[in-house]
Amino acid sequence: MSAHPRLSLNQATIKYASLPDALRVTADAGIGGIGLWREPVAELGLDESVRRVADSGLRVSSLCRGGFFTAEGEVRAAALDDNRRAIDETAALAAAGAAGSAAVLVLVAGGLPDGSRDLAGARDRVRDAIGALEAYARSAGVVLAVEPLHPMFAADRAVVSTLGQALDIAEQFDAASVGVVVDTYHVWWDPQLFAQVERAGRGDRIASYQVCDWITPLPADVLLGRGMMGDGHIDFGPVTRAVADAGYTGDIEVEIFNEQIWAAPASEVAERTARAFAAHVPAEPLAAVR
To answer: Which of 8, 92, 135, 255 is the most buried (most CB within 10 A)?
Structure first.
């Protein structure tokens, strides 16, 4: 079978598959791209991961994740060192991928430090950390992609909650090295979404576009409240067209955190993803947008 040519399967959607298995089921489902996560890469080792990616024939659409910049002191210094390693990993894996691979490192800002209520200060530390990393990323040919997360994650996971806030940070740096992620799950609710997508397009800031659905009722662990496209409340057509009109021409990742989906065989999930993407995400083929 052959999936939509711009579809990329983010590894989080098949969480329990090893990297070799993830590469295999993605290719077997006719999906041309894969979004990688650092933990499975570390489990296999970077050199072997690079070899497996090169042998797979798949494009690499991103590496998740860097970030977690809001701590102070030694914890912050350790986070910056870890992000430099993530930049190196991103560059190596993207170079190993097929033509069209993107050297994009997805950044999750980090939540409030223990005992803090200072959102503005935490966001300033995110900006400062990106400033400390930007030259290193630029020298490696890697784009740091700031991902805003839904406001319900502001306390513990990401103090950057809207696309506008992500752009406020990204626009302080060169667009060649700092961009943003548009993830439908996190931004679909935002009344400023389309204006901010247009703004991102004017600055050539969209480094990654990710899709999955918002399902209700939310589970007890709200992090796992993502669904397959068509199973929830998001209208993917207008958002996808806005992202295309903003000039984004890269892969479109499906990234789903959901226990029921994780429990299913990875090959079935990959095939279901391809079908749902074709049915619900009106993306133009690569040839039409490049």
So the answer is: 8
Supply the CATH number for residue 232's domain: 3.20.20.150
Question: Whole-angstrom Cα distance, residue 217 to residue 221?
Answer: 11
At residue 283, the pLDDT reads: 86
Q: What are the CA-CA distances from residue 235 to residues 77, 162, 185, 231, 262 (Å)?
A: 41, 18, 11, 11, 24
Which pLDDT does position 41 carry in this prediction? 98
Q: Average pLDDT for consecutive 10-residue bins of the chain (290 residues)?
A: 92 98 98 98 98 98 97 94 98 98 98 95 97 98 98 97 98 98 98 98 98 97 96 98 97 98 98 97 64
End-to-end CA gap in the chain: 24
**CA–CA distance from 137 to each of 76, 79, 105, 173 (Å)?**
18, 15, 9, 12
Return phi, psi of residue 59, to 5°: -75, 145
Sorted by sequence, the CB contacts under 8 Å of residue 225 that are 6+ apart come out as: 214, 215, 216, 218, 219, 257, 258
1 in any annotated domain: no
Domain of 157, in residue numbers: 7-289
pLDDT at 46: 98
Task: Show the CA angle centred on residue 161, arms to residues 82 and 84, nearest 5°.
Answer: 15
Task: Give the Cα separation of 254 and 31 in Å (integer).
Answer: 11
Would you state the pLDDT for residue 263?
98
Report if residue 87 sits inside a domain.
yes
Number of structural domains the chain divides into: 1
Is there a domain that residue 2 lies in?
Answer: no
87 token code pair:
């930049």
The residues, any chain, with a CB within 8 Å of residue 166's CB and separated by 6 or more, are: 146, 147, 148, 160, 180, 181
Q: Which phi and psi (to 5°) does residue 181 adopt?
A: -105, 135
pLDDT of residue 177: 98
| Residues 37-65: b if buried by 16+ CB within 10 A, e if exposed | bbebbeeeeeeebbebbeebebbbbbbbb
